[in-house]
Sequence to fold (520 residues):
Amino acid sequence: MFSREVLVQQVVDNQNWDVIVIGGGATGLGVALDSVTRGFKTLLLEQSDFAKGTSSRSTKLVHGGVRYLAQGNIDLVKEALYERGLMLKNASHLIKNQSFIIPNYSWWDTILYTVGLKVYDLLAGKLSFGASIRISKKKTSKRLSTIQTKHLKGGVVYHDGQFDDARLAVNIAQTCIEQGATALNHFKVCKLLKTKEGKVSGVMAKDAEGGVEYQLNAKVVINATGVFTDEILQMDKFDAKNTVRPSQGIHLVLDRSFLPGDDAIMIPKTTDGRVLFLVPWHNRVVVGTTDTLLDSHSLEPKPLEKEIDFILETANAYLNKTVSRSDVLSIFAGLRPLAAPKDASEKTKEISRSHKIIVSESGLMTITGGKWTTYRRMAQDTINKAIALGKLSHKNCRTKDLRIHGADGSAEATNHLYIYGTDQKAIELLIADTPELAEKLHPRLEFLKAEVVWAVTNEMARTVEDVLARRVRILFLDAKAAQEVAPYVAHVLAQYLNKPQTWESAQIKEFTQLANQYII
Fold:
């Protein structure tokens, strides 16, 4: 079902579609899933890999957004908290209830956050992850053994969601295919097709692997390309104004010893006005994020020195265990597709994260803004809009209770394979059949050789980067180790994809260069 040959053949056999979605991040995948489950013939095309951009580079949180509450954006928070509850229910293997502690260093902050988070609890309603409580200095320092205790007054505990972003994207892509959609990575849209009247009627797209171009017709074309939104809008109208301004956020990944307990830390006030999180993730700690407006965007954004310094300085102001550059296992940067500020003085932290649907004169539909937590609602609104415009027949949304591929809340988190949910059993069968696949990929990592085989045979991985960045998350967890296992991964891929030695060597070289950007 997930074979590229089968999926490409579907494109060869079908030139006419109801919906073509451009972009395979959280937004595009959500739109494709909403579309296909309503019964529309759906094609999703991603120029690189699923979640290659912003959607694999988040802070790993499924949350309402405490800072949006502080800004008074009640509707956005309420919507996100509702969607957070649905995500926990529908992708139970990847979303978990995470306790956060806000350390308080003034009595006023204690009162402010205690009251504010009670409002947060109320907005979550029946889908609450747990009530927030105030805790003493003694309890705060016991639960956060590495927290700075000088002037500490206590803490406020609240609950939010934590998840694996890229793995959820891959599972949504699988769900789309299981429901009858065609979803292809490494398949770039090069041009929009138009009628004599100037209406968008489809796309020209090129298979990056086969090099073949396809002309594909559709009743509606949806631009869900995040920071690349304007490139598609300019395919439609060459002088279209920029609607998106990328804001860069970086994250540092540290050893678990910097946050050894079960709780995450939320630091609500930093010098750049954003909150800073320290979140347990795959037995490491993700620390971030920054907020730097950029004038350009790329598939592989680079962290800036000032961003690295900012995170290290802020973390060290709150921790009693000093973090230095040598402690950083991996560093990754992501771009937020924020609405372009109306003037240069507008701060990105003040730009609303609410999503927006744009309908061009040509009929091209664009969905921008939003965040991972609200991906399902964004998709629902987008397809509802297409129906309201008369592009599609009226059919109700069916994703509210739809389980995502792998959903299983019974897996034991003690075994790292739990993130595969119901697929865990299939991976264990692979190992039973070929016992050497039980070997670790790297002596200091928990990941197994079987996971590489699974990624290429069942999760549409096509390159070493696809495997080590977004299926088996080693690049994001330990970049040097990722470089060391790249030759093995390239060899497995070459075997299963029937690639020559030259391809294998090129993959190792390419990935090694890429991984250098993840090492300080």
In short: The mean pLDDT is 94.
